[in-house]
């Protein structure tokens, strides 16, 4: 069986500077795969390339058996690849509900969209309570919930989450991680980028450690969580 | 002072025309952060598009039949030029430093003026624009000139169409998303290149309606008409809060009323009798612009720039 997402020797450059220097990994349907590493490792660049916002300088990206290299960003979501970007990027002057509707921009099955909006409110009740409020007035954690809910509105085959815990309070971070665990239990395939290695690896079936544009270590979530070099570098132990 | 209601109505109608043109500045700015200084000339070509249709029609055609066809002609010409400008002049500069598209816009503006001057028959001096017959219309002690009747209908209708489009249609929601965060709009599946073309086209279409209103109001059009009117409309857009489509119309109305009242009443202030004539109207309009830029740079309905982050 081929994997849902296959990344092979992917290279991405900003001008002459190569930010991703030939990485390969796969995501199987139903898996949670995480990319961890410090700032500047190339994690966000990788996700932005997968969703078409950046163009690869080399290598292959296959999603559901199709090459994504020449597909423009606005068509990639319709193939089933949704991206909740780093920094959340909700539409601040729109209501929460309109933000969710934009997540379903390319769908025209009205009953299905309404049903998925209710599902998003079930997953994040606070969003339902504030559905008519401008999204820019939400707290960081609530905005993160909205960004995730919005990404789910396209009914993706693969959900990409970029730093969902960034800048959140410990309690809010736990909440977000619990939601990711819940999505995993429902069978959602997730590619998770995180700086919080502990939380990400506890959830992940597989993890890849990135350093300055390359993958330096790969393994199952539990393996990496117990790997000595990972513990030293990313979990703050000496 | 019983002429005050009359002056307010005059100002409102003038302002509605500014507002129709201002929509184009504000829509394009809201989406690509470009001041399309050629927009005044796109407005001007719309007027010549309408005149061309009129000249094609057999003599003696009534204005009630001709006017819709002239509007269509104006819209087609203005939209074609705006979309062409976007595709061939602005899109190649999308990622260039901001000065490049700005200078391109000024160049395009001069090129369009000269093209009409050189190639449109007898456009080296003003050309008469056909007029609606009947009127003027009296409502109480306010008179609405025949040429302004078109604005009374066209301005609210245009705003209603625009409001419906932006708020209720899928493309309109895609446009709002693109204005707020273009990269994220792409992630939602919005074809932002297409949205940019639509913004240029819609802005040009409303400017074309404004151009027909101009021709009916003043009775003649010329190749330079887009310069001052474009500046006024740009002022209206800044006044209302650039990027905000309702702000464009409100800014237009505020500008039109302020300019009209200044022309009518400033001469009554002791010592100001020199500054009240029609030739000072433009000065007062730009004084208002300077005051807004000093005291409320985000405009009447504008958001502070920090909100965009």
Which SSEs are present, and which pair or pack?
The complex is a heterodimer of chains A (238) and B (309).
Chain A: E1 5-14, E2 17-27, E3 32-36, H1 43-50, E4 58-63, E5 66-67, H2 73-76, E6 81-84, H3 96-103, H4 110-123, H5 125-129, H6 140-152, E7 158-162, H7 170-185, E8 190-194, H8 197-203, E9 206-211, E10 214-220, H9 221-226, H10 228-234
Parallel strand pairs in A: 3-8, 3-9, 6-7, 7-8
Antiparallel strand pairs in A: 1-2, 1-4, 4-5, 9-10
Helix pairs in contact in A: 3-6
Chain B: H1 4-32, H2 39-56, H3 63-90, H4 99-119, E1 127-128, E2 137-139, E3 142-144, H5 149-168, H6 170-180, H7 182-187, H8 192-218, E4 220-221, H9 225-240, H10 245-265, H11 281-295
Antiparallel strand pairs in B: 1-4, 2-3
Helix pairs in contact in B: 1-5, 1-8, 1-9, 1-10, 2-3, 2-4, 2-8, 2-9, 3-8, 5-6, 5-8, 6-8, 9-10, 9-11, 10-11
Largest interface: A-B, 26 and 19 residues
Q: Give the tally of β-strands of chain A.
A: 10
SS summary, helix count of chain A: 10
Shape of chain A: globular
From the alpha carbons, calculate the radius of gyration of chain A and give it in angstroms.
17 Å
- Report low-confidence residues of chain B grouped into runs of 5 or more: 305-309
**Major sheet description of chain B:** 2 strands, antiparallel
What percent of residues of chain A are in strands? Answer: 25-35%
How are the strands ordered across the major sheet of chain A? Answer: 6-7-8-3-9-10
Structural class of chain B: mainly alpha
Mean pLDDT of chain A: 94
Helix content of chain A: 25-40%
Q: Helix-strand pattern of chain B, N to C?
A: HHHHEEEHHHHEHHH
Q: Label the structural class of chain A.
A: alpha/beta
Q: How would you classify the quaternary structure? A: heterodimer
Radius of gyration of chain B: 19 Å
Contiguous runs where pLDDT drops below 50 for at least 5 residues of chain A: none
SSE pattern of chain A: EEEHEEHEHHHHEHEHEEHH
State the separation between the terminal residues of chain B, measured CA to CA: 49 Å
Tell me about the biggest sheet of chain A?
A: 6 strands, mixed
Main location (chain B): membrane
Keywords (chain B): Amino-acid transport, Cell inner membrane, Cell membrane, Membrane, Transmembrane, Transmembrane helix, Transport
Membrane topology (chain B): Multi-pass membrane protein
Family (chain B): Belongs to the binding-protein-dependent transport system permease family. LivHM subfamily.
């Amino acid at each position: 069986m081929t994997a849902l997402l296959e990344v092979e020797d992917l290279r991405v450059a900003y001008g002459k500077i190569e930010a991703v220097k030939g990485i390969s990994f796969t995501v199987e349907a139903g898996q949670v795969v995480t990319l961890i590493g410090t700032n500047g490792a190339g994690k966000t660049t990788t996700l932005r390339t997968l969703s078409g916002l950046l163009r690869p300088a080399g290598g292959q990206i296959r999603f559901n058996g199709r090459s994504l290299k020449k597909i423009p960003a606005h068509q990639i979501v319709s193939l089933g690849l949704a991206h909740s970007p780093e920094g959340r990027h909700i539409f601040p002057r729109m209501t929460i509900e309109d933000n969710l509707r934009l997540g379903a921009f390319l769908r025209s099955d009205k009953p299905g969209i309404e049903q998925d909006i209710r599902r998003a409110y079930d997953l994040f009740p606070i969003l339902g309570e504030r559905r008519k409020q401008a999204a820019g007035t939400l707290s960081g954690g609530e905005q993160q919930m909205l960004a995730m809910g919005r990404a789910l509105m396209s009914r993706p085959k693969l959900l990409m989450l970029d730093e969902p815990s960034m800048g959140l309070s410990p309690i809010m971070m736990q909440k977000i991680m619990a939601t990711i665990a819940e999505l995993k239990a429902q069978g959602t395939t997730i590619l998770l980028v995180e700086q919080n290695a502990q939380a990400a690896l506890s959830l992940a079936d597989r993890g890849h450690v990135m350093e300055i544009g390359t993958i330096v270590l790969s393994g199952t979530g539990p393996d990496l969580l117990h790997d000595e070099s990972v513990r030293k570098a990313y979990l703050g132990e000496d | 002072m019983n002429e005050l209601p009359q002056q307010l109505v005059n100002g409102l109608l003038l302002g509605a025309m500014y507002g129709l043109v201002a929509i184009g500045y504000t829509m394009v700015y809201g989406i690509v952060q470009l001041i399309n200084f050629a927009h005044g000339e796109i407005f001007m070509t719309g007027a010549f598009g309408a005149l061309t249709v009129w000249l094609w029609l057999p003599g003696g055609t009534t204005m009630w039949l001709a006017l819709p066809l002239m509007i269509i002609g104006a819209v087609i010409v203005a939209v074609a030029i705006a979309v062409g400008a976007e595709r061939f002049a602005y899109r190649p500069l999308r990622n260039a430093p901001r000065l490049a598209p700005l200078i391109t816009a000024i160049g395009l503006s001069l090129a369009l003026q000269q093209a009409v001057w050189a190639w449109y028959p007898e456009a080296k001096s003003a050309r008469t624009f056909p007029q609606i017959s009947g009127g003027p219309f009296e409502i109480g002690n306010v008179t609405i000139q025949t040429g302004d009747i078109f604005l009374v209908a066209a301005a609210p209708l245009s705003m209603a169409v625009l409001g419906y489009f932006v708020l209720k249609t899928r493309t309109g929601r895609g446009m709002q998303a693109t204005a707020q965060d273009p990269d994220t709009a792409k992630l939602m599946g919005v074809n932002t290149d297409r949205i940019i073309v639509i913004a240029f086209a819609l802005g040009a279409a409303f400017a074309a309606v404004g151009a027909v209103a101009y021709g009916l109001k003043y009775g003649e059009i010329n190749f330079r008409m887009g310069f001052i009117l474009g500046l006024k409309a740009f002022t209206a857009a800044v006044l209302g809060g650039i990027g905000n489509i309702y702000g464009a119309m409100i800014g237009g109305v505020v500008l039109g009323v302020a300019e009209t009242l200044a022309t009518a009443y400033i001469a009554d202030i002791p010592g100001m009798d020199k500054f009240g004539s029609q030739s000072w109207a433009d000065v007062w309009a730009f004084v208002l612009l300077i005051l807004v830029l000093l005291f409320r740079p985000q405009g009447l309905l504008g958001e502070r720039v920090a909100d965009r982050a």
